[in-house]
Amino acid sequence: MADTAVKKPAKLDFKKKTKRMDFEICGAKATIVVRQYWAYTYTTKSGASAWTSKGKKKFHTEIEKIIHKAWCGKFILEVTGTSDFAKYVKGKKFTVYFDVDPKSSGAHWAVTAVKVPKGQFNGSVVNWSQQKMTLDTEDMNEVDKGGGPGVKQSGAGHEFGHALGNSKHAGASGHGDEYKDTSAYKAHKKSIMHSGMTLKKRHADYLVTELNKMIPDTTFAVKSVK
Amino acid sequence: MAQSDEGDVDVSEQLNATADAETFVGKSYQEAEAALGTPTTEESFTMSTGLQEFRIELRNIFDPSETPEIREVTWRRSADENLTLWFADKDGTSTAVHYMVWHPDSEF
Fold first, then answer.
1. Is the pTM of this model over 0.80?
2. B25: which of A165, B1, B5, B100 lies 20 to 30 Å off by Cα?
3. Domain extents for chain A?
């Protein structure tokens, strides 16, 4: 709850555009929206039927559904600092939401959508440096990635994590695949950046770093993960 | 690269770029090494259904009941391209059963 003794700041909403995603902070609603625009190209693997307009729309809808389920509303942030904004929203819990929209030009990411025969596998990949990713029509399914009994993962949820800055190429706050021998989190098999679908506070590191550049004397931090 | 209004891409150029990589499928490790030189990295693992994304296409090749030893060998072919070949014992001979061409910055 906001401290009513503190004067309402002149500005409660802040927006920032970056190369790989845009940020919107709404102080009144205590929400943060992270939005990415994706420019799709479509390819078909041998044995799969051709893409249709309906199939392309369905693909995006299903990918976004997985992303929302895995990431939306999970990170709860708190704010500290000496700015009027920070003082006004002190004690509020900010919820982080994610949105992905198709866009033919000026998009953050070039996404290759691969149609594969049902039940087949295609290696999905993200290239942070080049702002490219490849996803396929089986990436909505949760599959065994070697995380142990009952631990499964959807490719769409994991790859989106890379596109949110869980990448070894994303600067000081970046960290990538956690199943690698070089990862400090190799034991966290249920983690979404390992073999499962569980979010950890560290998976918002890049987002928090970017948010902390938006309002002077204002610091966001992950309080909890739902 | 040709692209339609709906975003469909003619992948023939991509296929040409990886065509030589595809020719290594069915070749022995010695044949690959003779053509590609000393590998950059090499690793072995037992095939299973629980594979990470980088190796997941191997599930298209082996049935869930098959658990061969896989030799995963990668060559850095240029600043923009790695080639990984997976070798397995099929019909008594170890040959490349699959390949992947990938950018060194890729994360799977």
1. yes
2. B1
3. 13-225
